[in-house]
Amino acid sequence: MIIAVDGPAASGKGTIAKALANHYGLPHMDTGMLYRSVALALWRFGGNAGNEFEALRAVEGIEQIDPGDEELRSETIGKLASKVSAYPSVREALLERQHGFARQEGGAVLDGRDIGTVICPDASAKLFVTATPEIRAQRRHKELTGRGVDAHYDDILIDIRARDERDAGRDAAPLVQAKDADLLDTSDLTIERAVQRAIALVEARL
Ligand code: C5P
């Protein structure tokens, strides 16, 4: 059983994917962390995100990145991740890890931007999780200020819109709802309700 969860930044897809993995007893992969790791590796060696070759070279550095590193979750690295992830060669270099994870016995839950469209087109269930940019900016703002980060709502909203545009507008694996994915708009839902709804949508596909 493979569950694909896609959607834009701060839509709630990560929380929903984790809850589904927990509910079905499946391993979970946050594929955004792969691109964030490439971005952080590139940042550390002082590489240029405008250069595809340098971005590709940074893929080799991801084993050295500590998954618990707080910098991975920063907006700077998220923004850089959305730049390096637009390169087809970078996406290609990360493909096998994702396929290997998805092919585990028993199945897996993967979340990202292109799981239902490119990585696991044959997934048992596909969710496209979304929310309005304003709600997503509010959530990100709350999360950041909660962690003691000095963040401004207006800046976050601008960043979220720019990231949406870049992720949806690129040629390589753009952010788009798969034809056979169920749409889950979390704008007016609490986390609990969104998770309940996600489980119900998955159940209907099994
Ligand atoms: O989901 P998260 O915000 O951590 O992802 C960071 C960036 O990585 C996204 O903005 C997107 O550009 C890229 N990404 C991607 N494909 C995925 C997951 C993330 O292109 N499957």
TrEMBL record:
<keyword id="KW-0067">ATP-binding</keyword>
<keyword id="KW-0808">Transferase</keyword>
<feature type="domain" description="Cytidylate kinase">
    <location>
        <begin position="3"/>
        <end position="203"/>
    </location>
</feature>
<dbReference type="Pfam" id="PF02224">
    <property type="entry name" value="Cytidylate_kin"/>
</dbReference>
<keyword id="KW-0547">Nucleotide-binding</keyword>
<keyword id="KW-0963">Cytoplasm</keyword>
<dbReference type="InterPro" id="IPR011994">
    <property type="entry name" value="Cytidylate_kinase_dom"/>
</dbReference>
<protein>
    <recommendedName>
        <fullName>Cytidylate kinase</fullName>
        <ecNumber>2.7.4.25</ecNumber>
    </recommendedName>
</protein>
<keyword id="KW-0418">Kinase</keyword>
<dbReference type="GO" id="GO:0016301">
    <property type="term" value="F:kinase activity"/>
</dbReference>
<feature type="binding site">
    <location>
        <begin position="7"/>
        <end position="15"/>
    </location>
    <ligand>
        <name>ATP</name>
    </ligand>
</feature>
<comment type="similarity">
    <text>Belongs to the cytidylate kinase family. Type 1 subfamily.</text>
</comment>
<dbReference type="InterPro" id="IPR003136">
    <property type="entry name" value="Cytidylate_kin"/>
</dbReference>
